[in-house]
Amino acid sequence: MIPRYSRPEMVAIWSPETRFRIWYEIEAHASDAQAELGVIPTENAEAIWRAKDVEFDVARIDEIEAVTKHDVIAFLTHLAEHIGAEDARFVHQGMTSSDVLDTTLNVQLVRAADILLADLDRVLAALKTRAYEHKDTVRIGRSHGIHAEPTTMGLTFARFYAEMDRNRNRLEKARWEVATGAISGAVGTFANIDPAVEEHVCAKMGLRPEPISTQVIPRDRHAMFFATLGVIASSMENIAIEFRHMQRTEVLEAEEYFSPGQKGSSAMPHKRNPVLTENLTGLARLVRMAVIPAMENVALWHERDISHSSVERAIGPDATITLDFALNRLAGVIEKLVIYPANMLANMNKFKGLVMSQRVLLALTQAGVSREDAYRLVQRNAMKVWEQGADFKAELLGDAEVTAALSPAEIEEKFDLGYHTRHVDTIFARVFGE
To answer: Confidence class of residue 265 from pLDDT cuts 50, 70 and 90?
Structure first.
């Protein structure tokens, strides 16, 4: 991923230096286990740890790979240059390249998941803070982009919190799903290596042994991981879209923080655009771009092919780096979002009480009017508001068929805003557990 959308901690997980360090640790731990089993001499296993402080030369490994056309062999050759050919003789004993590559990939994905979980915690904290801040800030709810009934800005934040909390649970499961390692040999039968080696390496690397591998760890695990990232990205876009709508000039119920010195347009000095949330919409597309290739990686030939390899070299870093950056950007947007309660009320009252139509409809049915007739009576008065700018309550009070069923006081009562917000505390208790 390009530096513009990258944060150093996540980038470091996918650097060649980190990858080779993990390869080294896997080989060293495997050698320890082999020595414990008496398969290789103890002194050879101990000699491998002489390289524990070595910074592996990426350029040198690339130079060797240019000849060998094999990345793991190039690394092992470079390792031998540090510890000596004799002591390197037993490195990689009974192992195959995928033992190193797949176990390393899963270590990287687990580390990436830990960063993403922390990112989600920041987003959740921001959503919770803003939800309580605006628990009783009334705004109009919309369906199809059209005014529906009153809600609160706190409920808007609360529903996003609940969605992101579900995503955090999904990511925890995806992390667990992908936290396996395999040191099982050429086709996963342990023919040339004891299962105890796999158990030892996995314990040292923070993984569980894969119950049954072929030459590779099954890719359904990775498919679930990247699919989870895709769902998180979609939820992120869901929030971004709401904020983008709220910042439209004719809505302006909220807007991204506009910092001193910031410019909105090279041509129009008046502009204050929702550039961060628009950016988040685009970044979500990039993360979701990894989902289908990850699912297609599940189907491999027999015990293994490498059709998945090139895909994972790209989607592993790109999806995790992008989502890490995006979640932190989202948290910043939420934390600094400027909210305009007065505009929310003005927007809700734009059509002069029209949003209370359902309450009147229900009251008429409870007063003995058939639902069909009640709907007709309410709609004909509502249309005057839409088409003529009339006042909905005034039209109802002037409609003889409506007042034959409802008294003026009963009609007036149906325009109480508090009716729509009386269960906010109940919903908050369900979402936040308080």
So the answer is: confident
Residue type, 172: E
Tokens 């944060």 belong to 7
How big is the CA angle at 375 (ends 369 and 380), to the nearest 5 degrees? 115
| Euclidean distance between CA atoms 48 and 46, whole angstroms | 5
- Is 113 within 8 Å of 175 (Cβ atoms)? yes
Residue 100 tokens read as 């190193």
What letter would DSSP give residue 339? E
In sequence order, what are the residues at sequence separation of 6 or more whose Cβ sits closer than 8 angstroms to the Cβ of residue 305? none
Residue 325 token pair: 């950056």
Cα separation, 194 vs 385, in Å, equals 80
Q: Which residues are bridge partners to 146 per DSSP?
A: 143
Residue of 31, 70, 97, 144 with catalytic role? 144
* Residue 265 annotated to the active site: yes
First to last CA, the chain: 40
Q: Which residue type occupies 356?
A: M
The continuous run of DSSP H or E covering 141 comes out as strand 138-143
Annotated active-site residue in 15, 265, 307, 310: 265
6 counts as catalytic: no
Contact 150, 140 (CB under 8 A): yes
**Residue 39 CB partners (closer than 8 Å, separation 6+):** 90, 93, 94, 194
Give yes or no for a contact between 240 and 330, defined as CB atoms under 8 angstroms apart.
yes
Give 151's strand partners. 139
Mean pLDDT of the chain: 96
- Burial pattern 255-271, b for ≥16 Cβ within 10 A else e, equals bbeeeeeeeeeeeeeee
- What is the reported pLDDT for 57? 94
* Beta-carbon count within 10 A of 136 CB: 15
Read off the amino acid at residue 305.
D
Pairing of strands 208-209, 254-255: unpaired
Q: Which residue has the tokens 């072929």?
A: 214
Mean pLDDT of 422-429: 97
